[in-house]
Design brief:
The complex is a heterotrimer of chains A (100), B (168) and C (389).
Chain A: H1 4-24, H2 28-53, H3 57-86, H4 93-97
Helix pairs in contact in A: 1-2, 2-3
Chain B: H1 2-24, H2 28-48, H3 52-76, H4 78-81, H5 90-112, H6 129-140, H7 142-163
Chain C: H1 2-14, H2 26-41, H3 59-81, H4 86-114, H5 119-129, H6 133-136, H7 138-151, H8 158-164, H9 166-171, H10 184-200, H11 227-244, H12 249-272, H13 277-306, H14 315-342, H15 348-370
Helix pairs in contact in C: 1-2, 2-3, 2-10, 3-4, 3-10, 4-7, 4-14, 7-14, 10-13, 11-12, 14-15
Chain lengths: 100, 168, 389
């Protein structure tokens, strides 16, 4: 039986990596991906605790987090597409993303 | 059981390595592939926690939805978003170092207070996972379900309106 | 636990990409991804009452989710082969995803009748209700069939070629025989789709008329259980007869070998008839499952070869304007029929006919509404990105 702390430590590691990615990267798509990794880490945390207590509330909440992650990814990418389109689609990468 | 320990180590190592690889890639397309690997490995860990519906939903939503969205976005924005110049912004580097410091503090907290924390013994999970989740979802947390549906609908409509090309 | 080992294999394939230049490994990785996702899905499928790899409580969603992994493989393969027309690749992936959504909705209308997502519970529910779900939710099955036919990816299909390479598709639109499978991944996903359809709609491993027990005189062998051995014997005899009239020695050998295999199967199936019921139901269950899958695949390929190209202009528009609303309305009507059957005590036939009638009427209305904007071929070389919805 794997103690719960190991799952918590794993979710912490994943969260830290995602947070570092979200802070370090300047490309908005990379930032969105790192945010998805952070949300996955939160999911693992929730499900580990739900396993500890023997209920399904944690898993249910993780389901809502997944739906929310999908929503925010879709919105973020949609906004990104609109920005790319309005700024002129074929510029170089530097001028586009150095302002974020 | 040693097998489940090995499995957890394997999946955790793959997830952490893929996440690390994802945030350090210069091109986005390998980043998307490593995101896929991270989410799949995390799905394996979720399955090990006997959360079968959450595992299937992770595959369906995260991998089938989010990774697909990312790959499509990466492919459609390739001339603009693929290559990044490799220069470091020291402000961001410092903030990520701060995150690391906080993480090490929390881990040290766990390590030092390990014996003092009394975790209750692990309870047994209900056998019909989907049924139990359905019970909780539709009886106890029903407003949350409704709100999630409405916000999903709002998101879909919003993204479609956002991405519609204005006819000139 | 075995399921985790299979997912482990899938993970090791995803790790193979460790280079900055994805071009070298991408075609192999893409095909591996498609094949692996298809094979992993087989882990949760039940071939018989006890023949399975994993007993997942949410098994149906898992099988369905792995086909989405296949779409990622399709993206990678198209990206490595046709890296020029990115919009066409994206549109192809969107087509696959849209038809998967329609297929999911149609599948759920069958699952609603079972009340569980577990594969074994769905089949035992069909046993308990005395009818396969194809008779209780016929439109669900038809919609699932239609969505699967439109949503399977095959390089040989001209409409996929139209998306990617316009001139070549114009030249190849002449009707000639094509091997219907684009690749191994496509065929495995075809098998998975067939397995899903048979499990949810076709009764899984159940014998036709599974609750009808009529025995041979004096023995405990049931009448309908003699069908599999008879079928195998007939197939063996037919293959042997074909072998004797075959001129080519290679095909003669093939026919002889297949008749031998059928004879062996005949022996197994007959021997199992006198075995304990567990073994009998397991072996015959596997036979019925595979036979039903073969019948479904035959119908699938036949329909796909004979169906006209999509008349609604772009296939994605057909999916989102017609198939998905119809599948959703079918789901609602099947659920209402279920409520009517159980709580208001309507007769099963009456509620099913009413639900089917409503959905057929709405379907006809939807189809007639879109028939005015029929386009047959769109020949504009579409490099620009238009709204693909």
């Amino acid at each position: 039986m794997i103690p719960v702390e190991h799952y918590l430590a794993f979710s912490l590691v994943l969260f830290v990596i995602g947070a570092a990615g979200a802070l370090m990267r300047r490309n908005p798509i990379m930032i969105l991906m790192s945010i998805a990794v952070m949300l996955t880490a939160a999911n693992v945390n929730l499900i580990a605790f739900s396993r500890l207590w023997g209920t399904v509330h944690g898993q249910l909440f993780s389901l809502f987090i997944m739906a929310d992650a999908a929503m925010e990814t879709a919105l973020g990418l949609g906004i990104l597409v609109v920005c790319m389109r309005s700024r002129g689609a074929r510029d170089s990468a530097e001028s586009e993303f150095s302002k974020w | 059981m040693a097998g489940s320990r090995l499995l957890f180590d394997f999946f955790a190592a793959i997830a952490a390595a893929s996440a690390l690889a994802m945030v350090t890639r210069r091109n986005i397309f390998p980043g998307a592939v490593f995101l896929l690997a991270t989410l799949l490995a995390t799905g394996g860990i979720v399955l090990q926690l006997q959360a079968e519906y959450a595992f299937a939903a992770q595959l369906l939503l995260f991998v089938g939805g989010i990774v697909l969205l990312f790959v499509l976005a990466v492919m459609l924005l390739i001339p603009d978003a693929l290559h990044q110049p490799a220069r470091f912004n020291w402000r961001m580097f410092a903030s990520s170092a701060l995150v690391l410091v906080v993480a090490i503090e929390i881990l040290a907290f766990f390590w030092a207070r390990h014996d003092a924390m009394l975790w209750p013994s692990v309870a047994a999970m209900p056998t019909n996972n989907t049924g139990a989740m359905g019970d909780v979802l539709f009886r106890d947390d029903f407003p949350a379900f409704e709100f999630a549906s409405i916000s999903l609908l709002a998101t879909i409509v919003g993204v479609v309106m956002l991405a519609k090309r204005r006819t000139e | 636990m075995l399921l985790e080992r299979v997912t482990l294999a899938l993970k090791s394939y995803a790790r193979a990409l460790l280079t900055e230049n994805p071009g070298r490994f991408l075609p192999g990785l893409a095909s591996i991804a498609r094949v692996a996702s298809g094979i992993v899905a087989f882990a949760a499928l039940w071939f018989g009452p006890a023949i399975r790899l994993a007993n997942l409580n949410a098994g149906l969603i898992f099988i369905f989710a792995t086909s989405f992994l296949g779409i990622c493989g399709v993206l990678a393969r198209d990206f490595s082969v046709h890296s020029g027309s990115l919009a066409g690749i994206a549109r192809n992936a969107m087509r696959l995803a849209s038809f998967q959504v329609a297929a999911a909705l149609a599948l759920i209308s069958g699952v609603v009748l079972a009340g569980s997502l577990s594969v074994s519970h769905i089949v035992t529910a069909q046993l308990g209700q005395g009818a396969w779900f194809v008779f209780l939710a016929p439109l669900g099955f038809l919609l699932y069939l239609a969505s699967s036919i439109a949503g399977i990816d095959s390089v040989a299909r001209p409409s996929a070629g139209r998306e990617l390479d316009v001139e070549a598709s114009r030249a190849e639109s002449v009707e000639k025989f094509r091997w219907p499978f684009g690749s191994l991944g496509t065929s495995i996903h075809l098998l998975i789709g067939a397995g899903l359809a048979i499990t949810v709609f076709g009764g899984g491993w159940l014998r036709p008329f599974a609750s009808y027990h009529d025995h041979f005189a004096g023995t405990s062998v049931e009448l309908l259980d003699a069908l599999p051995p008879l079928a195998m014997a007939a197939t063996a005899a037919y293959c042997f007869w074909l072998a004797s009239s075959e001129a080519d020695s290679g095909r003669k050998q093939l026919m002889n070998v297949s008749s031998g295999v059928c004879a062996v199967l005949f022996a197994i199936l007959t021997g199992v008839l006198f075995a304990p019921p567990a073994a009998l139901s397991a072996v015959h269950g596997a036979f019925w499952f595979v036979a039903k899958m073969a019948a479904y695949i035959f119908g699938f390929l036949w329909l796909r070869a004979h169906m006209p190209h999509f008349r609604f202009g772009r296939p994605i528009r057909a999916a989102w304007n017609f198939l998905i609303p119809l599948s959703a309305i079918n789901l609602i009507c099947v659920a209402c029929a279920l409520v009517a059957r159980e709580q208001w005590n309507w007769s099963p036939a009456g509620s099913i006919f009413l639900a089917t009638g409503i959905v057929v009427a709405i379907g006809i209305w939807l189809g007639l509404r879109d028939i005015s904007e029929v386009q047959t071929y769109d020949l504009d070389a579409d490099g620009r990105q238009q709204t693909t919805l």
